[in-house]
From TrEMBL:
The modification N6-(pyridoxal phosphate)lysine is found at K202. The keyword Transferase applies. Its cofactor is pyridoxal 5'-phosphate. The keyword Nucleotide-binding does not apply. It catalyses: L-leucine + 2-oxoglutarate = 4-methyl-2-oxopentanoate + L-glutamate; L-valine + 2-oxoglutarate = 3-methyl-2-oxobutanoate + L-glutamate; L-isoleucine + 2-oxoglutarate = (S)-3-methyl-2-oxopentanoate + L-glutamate. It comes from Alterisphingorhabdus coralli. This is Branched-chain-amino-acid aminotransferase. Its EC number is 2.6.1.42. The lineage of its organism: Bacteria, Pseudomonadati, Pseudomonadota, Alphaproteobacteria, Sphingomonadales. It holds the Pfam family Aminotran_4.
Amino acid sequence: MADTLDFGFHPNPDPMPADERAERLKDPGFGTLFTDHMAMVRYTEGKGWHDAEISARRALSLDPAAAVLHYAQEIFEGMKAYKQADGAIALFRPEENARRFQRSAERMAMPELPEQIFLDSITRLTEVERDWIPPQEGGALYLRPFMFASEAFLGVRPAKEYLYLVIACSVGSYFKADAPAVTIWASQNYSRAAPGGTGAAKCGGNYAASLPAQAEAIEAGCDQVVFLDAAEKRWVEELGGMNLFFVFDNGEVVTPPLTGTILPGITRASLIQLLRDEGLTVREEPYAFEDWRKDSESGRLLETMACGTAAVVTAVGTVKSADGDFTIGTGGPGQITRKMRDRLVNIQRGEAPDPHGWVKHIG
Ligand SMILES: *Cc1c(COP(=O)(O)O)cnc(C)c1O
């Protein structure tokens, strides 16, 4: 079966006028300003991947028995296309997203999308939508590849038909640009992932299950929720959509290990490398919630960073829980957090050398 496909291009006959787009790009927000086109590829058991196209972004027509609506076979990715200092467009480690998409598919008993089809879908759509990248600082095209079971049937087995799509939206900064640090809520009532579960897969279901915990966080006046491990409620795992790093006063940095309950972030992997490039010692090992509190109070812990594609690197300033609150460092972004954020952003924007070959230029 095909490992590559030719994408047909059917231009949107009614795109947003350029002056209206320019106006909307001044304040794009996050996740609401969609571009004119989408990529779509079909999968049918026996036939494989077929009918690849870039065409007008439009509503889908789905049978009400489509398997995704009942048994939730759905996975996604999130990545950004950046405008470089010289005007070229670049993606950041897109082959890592392609591989993670394959691992997510495997976990949800879905067919693997060949890496080259994934990369071509992203590249083609970005080329078509290059004028949708906001010109201002922090602006990017956020790409959302996703796949779901479209076969119409009621019964518990892997579906035989799937749709893979990529949509795109223009985005500014995820958190308000002047937000100094986030406050997070440690959930005692909810778990995100259990051993043997789907915590390492980027599937919509993980997010659905995290929403009541996120609502609890908002209720407690926090921005985000931090999840502890399901078995002991003792070890810090990650936020709803971001991985964590703990920076100590002796030059050591700890991040929770990938034991199957944590999403293997590409920003996480990149930060581990960049921290080591700085001469810091990074250990992937469990960190207890009680130590987080103790080490913050004693001053041994200097900083906590949260990271992911959407918000890049953000400081965690305060942690709240049913047992009381604690503040990390000064409560604002520390030195390493700021340095790492700048490091990563500068590589992504082509403003600093890219020693690890992470940036892929397109067009
Ligand atoms: C996507 C995601 C992350 C961050 O991954 P990146 O590849 O760095 O964007 C972290 N945690 C969860 C639960 C996620 O879904």
